[in-house]
Amino acid sequence: MIQGIDVIGAGLAGCECAWQAASRGISVRLFEMKPQKHSPVHIYDGMAELVCSNSLRSDSLTNAVGLLKEELRRLGSLIMEAADATRVAAGGALAVDRTRFSDYVTSRICSNPNIEVIREERSSVDPDRITVIATGPLTSDPMSEFIRNMLGCEGLHFYDAVAPIVSFDSIDMNKAFFSSRYGKGGDDYINCPMDREQYLNFYEELINAREAPVHDFEKDIKVFEGCMPVEIMARRGVDTLRFGPMKPVGLIDPRDPREHYAVVQLRRENDEGTCYNIVGFQTHLAFPEQKRVFSMIPGLENAEFLRYGVMHRNTFLDSPGLLDADYSLRKNERVFFAGQMTGVEGYIESAASGFVAGINAARRYQCLESFIFPPVTVIGAMARYVSEGGLGDFQPMNANFGIVDPISGIKKKISKKIKYEMISERSLSAVDSFRGSL
Q1: Could you tell me how far CA 304 lies from the centroid of its own chain?
Q2: Which CATH architecture best describes the domain 5-159+314-424?
Q3: What does pTM read for this prediction?
């Protein structure tokens, strides 16, 4: 007999998860290893600690994370309640006072009569309880070892090395062209050609661009040759990229059959063709520098970056094939995962995964069917991405409109702003239609 629900980890995902389950009248034990033990980046003893930034990004409904916030607000999210209560002035973004935000969440969690907070590190799960593991991208070694043994060695990644992703409709196809190398594979790639002057200007900016800061615990991480940061590769010599990820040979531009000096390739990231990955551009550049330098690539001058490139230690699951869209483990329906380790990237995205896992852990306890959020919502689109993935290797992803079901039946070209407004209106209509049943 199932005795209750355990949530391991009191970050944004774990707190949202515990709150949603407890709000449905279920006894929840929330385990948090602080203050006895902290991860390498956490310093505050409170729950839901914001480490990297106090900004929760855009609050606009023409931005996917802004829509995600509104979906969560309407559905009764604790994290959004706390964010709105502790917000500070930040223009069109939602930013919070970090200490007040953490204190608010901690107070709400500790005053909930259905939540028992246990301050200890966990290294396993109780087989008699439904468990949600929300231990974050810096999961402690004992819990990482338990997860790896439970899933198998291939189920857990410990290093994140990914290239940026841009939206297709922000690529200037008057400058780029479809083609696969030597004609193999049809039009699977978008190619952005450069002449010699463009390449040399790009090269100089790339090798001198500012890199993101490195945490002390990441300094000894060895990078494999196959995922070398593009800026490090470039510093080996001015022509290194032209014989590597920017190799022009075999790529025929139908408008100009001559071989280009260099070519940046973008590979389709999903079946719908709404997202494209910049091939071979794993990078450790700071996000503003990525926007500045990569926008020098012909065709990407106005690119919308759905995900910036990152290279850092990040414990995450190879979720497609392991998790269902309710964030439960396919081979053990009593175990759920939530937070960044599922492959969602960002504070609000983590909270949303905890929201879905908490509701469905409660439904599992109550012997009800899982509630799968529709992919017309950002919540549902992220759950689908986590459970199904895109094309190629699975990598963490921020909320973006590229993974949401597109609007069908549009016969004329419309602006991105109007399109995103339509997506938001459709999403919130769907949320309003089902929130009563939750």
Answers
A1: 16
A2: 3-Layer(bba) Sandwich (3.50)
A3: 0.74
Q: Where are the domains of the chain?
A: 5-159+314-424, 165-308
Q: Which CATH number fits domain 165-308: 3.30.300, 2.40.30, 3.10.620, 1.10.3470?
A: 2.40.30
Q: What are 288-296's contacts with CB under 8 Å, separation 24+?
A: 289/209, 289/210, 289/211, 290/164, 292/205, 292/209, 293/202, 293/205, 293/206, 293/209, 294/164, 296/198, 296/201, 296/202, 296/205
Around 80, how many Cα atoms within 13 Å sit in the side-chain half-sphere?
21
Helix (H, G, I), strand (E, B) or coil at 205: helix
30 phi, psi to nearest 5 deg: -110, 115
Q: What is residue 47's DSSP assignment?
A: S
pLDDT on residue 280 = 87
Condensed to tens digits (0 to 9), the pLDDT of residues 115-146 reads 999 999 999 999 999 999 999 888 888 988 89
Number of other CB atoms surrounding residue 306 within 10 Å: 24
For residue range 198-242, list pLDDT tens digits in order: 999 999 999 999 988 765 545 555 454 445 789 989 999 999 999
**Residues 244, 82: Cα–Cα separation, whole Å:** 47
Angle of the 12-22 helix axis to the 78-85 helix axis, nearest 10: 120
Same fold, 5-159+314-424 and 165-308: no
3-state secondary structure at position 177: strand
Q: Got the DSSP string for 350-395?
A: HHHHHHHHHHHHHHHHTTPPP-PPPTTSHHHHHHHHHHH--SSS--
